[in-house]
Amino acid sequence: MESITASKEWQRLAELRRGRQDRRISDTFRADPERAKDLSAEAAGIFLDISRQRLDREILDALFALADARDFSGARDALWRGEKVNHTEQRAALHMALRAEPGDGVGDAETERFVIDERARMRALVERVRSENRFDHVVHIGIGGSHLGPALALDVLDAAHPDNEGIAVHFVSTPDPAPLAKLMRTLPRERTLLALVSKSFTTAETALAFATLADWLSQGKDRAQVLREQVIGVSANVAAMHEGGIPGEHQLRMPEWAGGRYSLWSAVGLPVALRFGMPVFEEMLAGARAMDRHFRNTEPRGNLPLRLALTGIWNINFQDARTHAVLPYSEALAQLPAYLQQLEMESNGKHVDRDGRTVDYRTAPVIWGGVGMNGQHAFFQQLHQGTDWTPLDFILVAGPDHGLRAQRDCVLANGLAQAEALMNGGADESGDALSPYRAFPGNRPSTTILVDELDARRFGALIAMYEHKVFAQSVIWNLNPFDQFGVELGKKIAKRVEPAVSGGKVPDELDPATRQLLNRIVRRET
Fold this sequence. Notes:
Strand order of the largest sheet: 1-2-11-10-8-9
Oligomer: single chain
Distance between the termini: 60 Å
């Protein structure tokens, strides 16, 4: 495959950029009365509006031509069939199979059987734990995708089910001593269940956190019995779970073909089912499945994930955007920016393409953001008047209002107003000396994502839409979005550093700054 930047489709987009540098977004609305309607689409309970982006129909045509030239449809089919799209690790990427129904054709018969069997085992375990009423608390121990997805889902579903009185869930993602100590001070040992979630079951951070909590649970008891009765393991490494003393009826398997950042749909979503019941977890799967089918079957121009992906390509590669902000106007989605940081930056934060060549174009931007209403009193100053600009995703939730209509209306009005203000800008017309300081340049692009109601089904669809966006961008950039070798180097060095932190010899091969800091840490301990 030729270099993407040398292709005629890429060159056409570069030409369109040069011809539109001075045009404002607001002008495009005046020129095209149907713009808002034409640049919006809806699927699986998600309404997507890209009309406030710095693009038009001609640019969109060129972006769709680029996707076609990169064989987006063929890559999508290969992903769906279960081909080894993760070529560096020789694996399929079948996270869609985790929420598929029999007959959807995601992967092969063996994949389908694995999903059916594991979901049945998960359902049986969840129903038993919930019916026994032995546990009031579950501590979910996992890092990365084993933490970010379930933590976000719990926030969303707690808001959607405010009267739920299910098992309380606590998350431990690292062996940081402060939160561990707090849990051990406050939770009742007899009423606490541990869920150790690790694909390899050898992740050092989670292993240490688990050992600490297991020791605490076992004080004054037979440790082997505690492991049998008060621990659930979720892993692809069944042998390691057996060796760790977790009985088979407390083991749930993660598949090798679903990466951590795509694993919420597997038994990694156990805390959702324990707290809200298996039907709510399955509603979340149903929403994601609806978006999967939309992504698979809808032609490119009406395809929400592809539209979202191509908008990003335009901003990153032709407008020189360096970052991308995600601004949910919903407290329930406060952790969404962190979730998308991993999903996007771990997937497409690569500088080498699928052919092993160093790329000559920008790939994944830095993802950041926060709850929009809070952001208005913090970083929105830079968004409106800073020297740089940032593409934005505004995420609005229309309801329900939980009996607080005025409060809901205030949140929605602010989200709508900020998107308009960033696009149109404005100037102080009073003529006083402060006029330059009150000028707003505008022309700051944004996408609006409207969700009628943030329930389990629509939440599943929202997350799946972003998953498919990331995949579509990887196709354009010719990247493998399913490996993550960048997370490994620092961990290897940490294994050499940790003995020195504990008072051992400081390795000579460490750089001078690290040696200096280690010496200060060791002196503090003595």
